[in-house]
Amino acid sequence: MALRSEPTARQLRLAVELRRLREAAGLSARQAAGLLGVTAPVISQIESGIAGVSDQRLRRLAAHYACTDGEFVDALAAMAADRTRGWWEEYRGLLPTAFLDLSELEHHAAYRWDVDFLHVPGLLQTEDYARALFSRRVPELPQEELELRVRHRMRRRAILERPEPVPYEVLVHEAALRIRVGGRAASRAQLARILELSEADHVTVRVIPFDLDDFADVTAAMVYAGGPVPRLDTVVRDGPHGSLFIDSEAQLGVFRTLFHRVEGASLDPARSRDLIQGLTKEL
Fold it and tell me: Is residue 255 a contact partner of residue 220, using CB atoms and an 8 Å limit?
């Protein structure tokens, strides 16, 4: 199998989980190689994501590592066997890799949670809203890349529109809804889009209101993508130098707790719709 020059985040996650299993079993790469009849460099290539592994070999390794979590092993085997080349591959070499990794992650997600405080989350954005956001980037994007980013963001909405859509819950602060992005008309259209999507059975929108007490310590904006099993969940957070993909069990537990804390403090869906409708009338 040819070596990969640039593993995707999904391929790297599989590699990391295999390394974690080996280390938990107390085996060296050389010992693991002996179990498969390969060399230690092959195990290193698999555990760095630059080489793939068949689902059969993965199951052999998991058995040797004494992993008894059958659902987890099945999920890893499915990842190993997956050869999906999604629509996002059209943008490889044209957009930052993190854009493609996020598209792949959410395509495979069992469910999706978003928390945002300053902007409407990407999956809810209209084309005009997204274009206005990207146009404010510093340094300014070339027009061609700006339009590529807008088109990519609009195509990501496929996970909410396909025959079996991803269950989606979004917690958005009232501030993000009040900030005018792209002007009055664009902001009104954006609020209307959120109201439209909130009517779907698989979409839940909750607003974090301004008048909430004791909320200053809960400001963890996040994208939370549920995996086929909880151990394969992923959190994505934006930073000044790009997106950070978080997958350690301890950190995932922290972000689950934070999400549910914010969820509990937010308005219920009906009251959230009433608030958004009120904001729409003000524009």
Answer: yes
